[in-house]
Amino acid sequence: MSIANETWQQARTIYRTVRMIQERMIRQHASAFKVSGTEPLCAELSFPQFNAVFMVRERDAVTIKELAEALQVSAPSASAMVDRLVDMGMLTREQSQVDRREVVVRVSERGLEHLAILEEQILDAIADLLKKLGAESAAQWTNIYQKISRVIESEQAVSKT
Description:
Layout: H1 3-36, H2 47-59, E1 62-63, H3 64-71, H4 75-88, E2 91-95, E3 103-107, H5 109-133, H6 135-160
Helix pairs in contact: 1-5, 3-4
């Protein structure tokens, strides 16, 4: 097997595994709320909407233009997504105090509560996998993810300059 082909196979394995992990977390998230008999706001969110809400939370507040750039979508698409998320109670939008032509978007208190629940469920799902892997494999996995984070952060720092 050539190095390029081996790398491609490794990439395919990682991709499939990440998808399996995502599906597992989604199932656990859905089942947790079925047991409690409640329906979270997060249950209605698409993956791009999750990204948008998490991105807004990480930055505390963003303009529609900043959100569009971060999500790599058009401003009208970002605006439509924000409208839907405001209707769902996940985000708030208000006039900018600096430039009245701009709209500032923030995660609502209700949205923050639902994100906290979601993150706890995701962390529980990951912790469950780590326990099943055992301490040594869990440490290796964590080490690899830390290396990946450093590579991505380095690339982001270079692209900002």
